[in-house]
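User: Sequence in, structure out. Go.
Assistant: Echoing your sequence, followed by the structure tokens.
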Amino acid sequence: MTGTGRRTVHGFDCDVLVVGGGIVGLSTAYALTRSAPGTRVVVLEREPAPARHQTGRNSGVIHSGIYYRPGSLKARYAVSGAAEMVKFCAEHDLPHRVTGKLIVATRRDELPRLHALVQRGRENGIPVRELGPAQITEYEPGVRGVAAIRVGTTGVCDFGAVARKLADLAVAAGAEVRCGEEVVAVDRRPWGAAVRTAAGTVLRAHVLVNCAGLRSDTVARLTGDDPGARIVPFRGEYYELMDPSLVRGLVYPVPDPAFPFLGVHLTRGIDGSVHVGPNAVPALAREGYDWGVIRPAELAATLTWPGSRRLARRHWRYGAGELRRSMSKEAFTAEVRRLLPAVTSDVLRRTDAGVRAQAVLRDGTLVDDFLIRESRQAVHVVNAPSPAATASLPIGREVARRVRAML
């Protein structure tokens, strides 16, 4: 996975140093090698291999872009990125399927929000079909609802495999991907930055790109930049259906627009298994994949950030419900049963969790859009949770465009 490297020129080890080997960092490296051949790019990843966190721990859904505010980066990049992701997977023989999905209203008071999604989808250029109760069962015999919409451009893939292919392509074009290299210090200079890793490696670059995901705010502060937000980690807890025949494809509830989470949904993956979730609860560490992973310093940083406290005060009822479903399998099953009445707790088994790197502002506002900030010789991708994997190719091109202007 590591390139051969190039001779240091004028004291620089590379032109561009990308911190973070998830799908966004690797897409940025790939975009740079394509748009500016000869640019010396190095990617540093703290884990032993790329795509170990958000990229490799999600439901694998290629999102259509229907949920996002028209004109926002999320809307633009998800819509274009979904089509690009399907094309990329097809070109490189990566597993994927375009299945479409249902968004189902299970109560009449959800109908106004469902109709708003129809309008939003049309504004974003997404084909949407409205369904009645009988039409729902034509697609999903086990699902019940008062109305639904079908979004035909939604699909599934293996984003870990996509990330590995992006790494391979970038390396083949001359980039380097160095794993096991955690950035612990950054020395900003007028010409760029010198970075030191925990292993003692020192690299000097003209431009630093921060795609560190769960640690993007930490890396930004190491450079001396204030990202204006803090990453608050939320764990997404999943179950798996032991009887996958209960669901044919992808089924979602009508989301609450006050939150970035889409609610507990049903996702048939590329391997035929059906994931159920996620339930969203605060994680006790940046990589806190279960309640037993606690890092006191990271937890203290989350709790002392004013935005975390204000967020908790504002949405404690929602949070209490998520915590209850985390602690009680029966409560989680009851939530699933809203969509799939036949499901019982004995057909659900826990599977791997993920952690969402959610940026929160000082006033407690959840950052709703992708957030990319620039400073002298640095670009910080501060907020890039879902649908960042779907949108990774256009995000990478956008970051590469900003970087080229600094070289």
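User: And one key feature?
Assistant: Residues 41 and 175 are 5 Å apart (CA to CA).
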